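Quick start: read one record
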Amino acid sequence: MTDKISVGQCIRLLNYVDRFDDFLAKPGMTGVVTSVKEDAIVAKMNQPLSDNPDYQAAIEAEWGNCIHWYPIDIPPDPERGFEGLSMTALEDFLSDCELIDCLPA
């Protein structure tokens, strides 16, 4: 199923991508896919993921300035009216990104 995406493809974020308290990537940021597996897709971003130099240094150290997409499986919560959410890593990735032409180096 991940054959639609391959290492080296360039991407642009369509949405904010929130990774817990670590960072919030902004729409329009670009990057390159560095890993494609059934259970994870990884892209190294071209722009810093934080405007704060200390946070950015930590993001570089821990995540290599990469965003990871994983399968999502959140069970329903009828008390809150939440129907649940289930997506593959590819579906999660494609909901946040578009493939773009890579600019020449």
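Helices lie at 53-63, 89-96.
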